[in-house]
Design goal:
The chain has helices at 3-15, 56-67, 72-86, 137-141, 152-163, 173-181, 187-193, 203-209, 226-238, 241-244, 246-256, 267-271, 299-309, 321-341, 352-355, 358-365, 489-502, 507-512, 532-540, and strands spanning 43-47, 50-53, 96-102, 109-114, 183-184, 222-223, 276-279, 281-285, 288-292, 398-404, 410-416, 426-427, 430-431, 468-471, 477-482, 516-519, 522-525, 556-561, 564-569, 576-579. The strands form 5 sheets. It has a 7-stranded antiparallel β-sheet with strand order 1-19-18-15-14-9-8, with helices on both faces. It has a 7-stranded antiparallel β-sheet with strand order 7-4-3-11-10-2-20, covered by helices on one side. Strands 5-6 form a two-stranded antiparallel sheet. The chain is globular, with a radius of gyration of 22 Å. It has a single domain (3-279, 390-579), classed as 4-Layer Sandwich (Glutamine Phosphoribosylpyrophosphate, subunit 1, domain 1), CATH 3.60.20.40. Helices cover 32% and strands 16% of the residues. It has 19 helices and 20 strands. A hairpin with a 2-residue loop joins β18 (556-561) and β19. α2 packs antiparallel against α3 (72-86). With 580 residues, it is α+β, with helices and mostly antiparallel strands. It starts with a helix and ends with a strand.
Length: 580
């Protein structure tokens, strides 16, 4: 038996005894966003290798590496380095990431955790005022106290050492050239530069994005960043040590130590940061197996959402009122459990096995009636313990990309600096993250019950990032998918997976489906993208759309077909999918 089939057989016996696997072929966007019904707006591609990412310059950087014989992970390093330059509102060298990797030769699916860590000196009350009340969110966001030890570069270095085919030093040429010679500011970046985000008005951001006459850079302008070029040259030569030790590390510590709420990050915190590698968290979904990173990522929540939907007839109702109704009710159950129980498993007990237990999922799915009721309470899965209600405010500023190389290896990676332009503070030409605001500001309930996502020294904040790889019944990669979107990532990924796997839509059509985030009492939706009969049918079932501000989806996905790879980018952003 091949390693791939052996691995799948073990998973089958562990998760679904007696099951037979067979081969298988936070909020809506503005109303002026491209319509999901307009295929001309969808950037799709095909070929035997593929890169799908949020900016064409990053996609070309990845393809350049693949043309040179590089692996999917090699290309991921190049893509991230360019995204951090041309899409700094979303990710960068100063942020963190989760990556899922598929090895075509062995069939192994691995997860890499590059989530930031809190300083060793972090305390549960560091986001509270003298009266014990949470500090204003924006005040913390812009402070040095919001920044954790960055992990994206260290994580990529770990993955590339195991799966790279080129030298690490060869992977930063595109980023260095674009930073030195300048890149053209895209419309989306131009919008962020003059947005109402408080980081856009921070001194470092204003200085970077202003032209000599003091006006902000606009779409079509050429923006140079020689400091970024110098930083990536050092990373190419020294690896992650270039960031975590020496002059750049000293500059990071000094920058987060400034202001009214100075951060506690030290040189020791940076030098001691370590990414983590584990087996991916994989669970069956109908005739497929879906793999994500384990907690503290959002992967377990997406798998729970799928596990709930497996007990429904959603596959029989493609893009109908009943299909979307089932989607909303499974989503509400998923969010209720995730918000209560998820945190860093190195610091708190996370009941992943209990949440994904088939009998628990069946019991939770049985709560879905013919009409929507009050918000569901969290369940009580095995190993849950007692946790306080969650107070985390996870905001926007993330990117996702997928890559498949000539050998069939694949990467699905979600990457972030947390909010738009992170904390708004810059070092070495890149923005620092504000990832610690992904912790719950209130560490416990009034009765002292601790929150799963309370801050602690060395702890990684809970995340919604949930890059996924789907295997077919033979253990071969079928698809890779993921999205940015803050807490809405869970709903965006779930929608795309339902569209591709249950509703059998081409990748571009699945990504372009309307977004609908059902959580608690809210049904935030792109209402104008749904057919009128769907809106009416949902209202009859007690689902009435609401509209709130927030980050829209930026889905990217690739699917294996008999004719090669079918890839697409979300029409709501500037991404493309290209291959050869």
């Amino acid at each position: 038996m091949s390693p791939r089939l052996s691995s799948l057989s073990r998973l089958t016996r562990l998760l679904v005894p007696g099951a037979l696997f067979i081969l298988a072929a936070c909020a809506p966007l503005p109303k002026d966003a491209p319509s999901a019904a307009a295929p001309a707006a969808v950037e799709a591609g095909s070929g035997q290798v593929m890169v799908a990412a949020a900016n064409p310059l990053a996609v070309e950087a990845g393809l350049e590496i693949l043309r040179a014989g590089g692996s999917a992970v090699d290309a991921a390093v190049a893509v991230q380095a360019v995204l951090g330059l041309v899409e700094p509102q979303s990710s960068g060298l100063g942020g963190g990431a989760f990556l899922v990797h598929y090895d075509a030769e062995t069939g192994a699916v691995s997860a890499y955790n590059g989530r930031e860590t809190a300083p060793a000196a972090a305390t549960p009350d560091m986001f509270l005022n003298a009266e014990g009340k949470p500090l204003p969110f924006v005040q913390v966001l812009l402070s040095g106290r919001s920044t954790g030890a960055p992990g994206a570069v260290a994580m990529l270095h770990m993955a590339q050492a195991e799966h790279g085919r080129l030298e690490w030093s060869q992977l930063f040429g595109a980023a260095e050239r674009l930073a030195e010679d300048g890149f053209i500011v895209s419309p989306r970046l131009a919008e962020m530069i003059v947005s109402r985000a408080p980081q856009a008005k921070a001194p470092d951001a204003v200085a970077y994005f202003s032209k000599p006459d003091g006006t902000p850079h606009q779409a079509g302008d050429r923006l140079k960043n020689p400091a970024y070029a110098a930083t990536v040259r050092r990373i190419a030569a020294e690896g992650p040590a270039a960031l975590m030790q020496g002059e750049i590390a000293q500059a990071i510590v000094a920058r987060v130590g400034e202001g009214d709420l100075p951060g506690a990050l030290t040189l020791a915190d940076l030098a001691s940061y370590r990414p983590q590698k584990t087996e991916a968290l994989c669970r069956p979904y109908r005739i497929y197996v879906v793999c994500t990173p384990p907690a503290p990522s959002g992967g377990p929540a997406v798998l729970e959402g799928l596990g709930l939907l497996e007990h429904t007839a959603i596959a029989d109702h493609p893009n109908t009122a009943q299909g979307w109704y089932l989607f909303t009710q499974a989503s509400r159950l998923m969010y209720a459990d995730r918000d209560r129980y998820m945190g860093d498993p190195d610091h708190v007990d996370v009941p992943t096995e209990g949440l994904l237990d088939r009998s628990y999922l069946a019991a939770r799915a049985a709560l879905i009636g013919p009409r929507a009721g009050p918000p569901p309470a969290p369940g009580t899965p095995k190993g849950a313990g007692i946790r306080a209600p969650d107070t985390t405010r996870e905001v926007s500023g993330t990117s996702h990309f997928v890559i498949v190389d000539a050998q069939g290896d694949a990467v699905s990676m979600t990457t972030t600096v947390e909010s738009i332009f992170g904390s708004g503070r810059m070092v070495g030409g890149f923005f620092l993250n504000n990832q610690l605001t992904d912790f719950a500001f209130a560490p416990a309930n009034t009765d002292g019950t601790p929150a799963a996502n309370a801050i602690a020294g060395g702890k990684r904040p809970r995340s919604s990032m949930a890059p996924a790889i789907v295997l077919d019944g033979e253990g071969r990669m079928l698809a890779a998918v993921g999205s940015p979107g803050g807490t809405s990532i869970l709903a965006y990924n779930l929608k795309a997976l339902v569209g591709m796997l249950d509703w059998k839509l081409p990748v571009a059509e699945a990504l372009a489906l309307p977004n609908l985030i059902a959580r608690g009492t809210s049904y935030a939706a792109e209402g104008d993208k749904f057919a009128p009969e769907v809106v009416e049918g949902l209202a009859e079932r007690g689902v009435v759309f609401t509209t709130v501000g927030g980050e829209g989806s930026g889905l990217h996905a690739v699917m294996v077909t008999p004719n090669g790879l079918d890839g697409a980018a979300d029409p709501r952003r500037e991404g493309v999918a290209r291959g050869f």
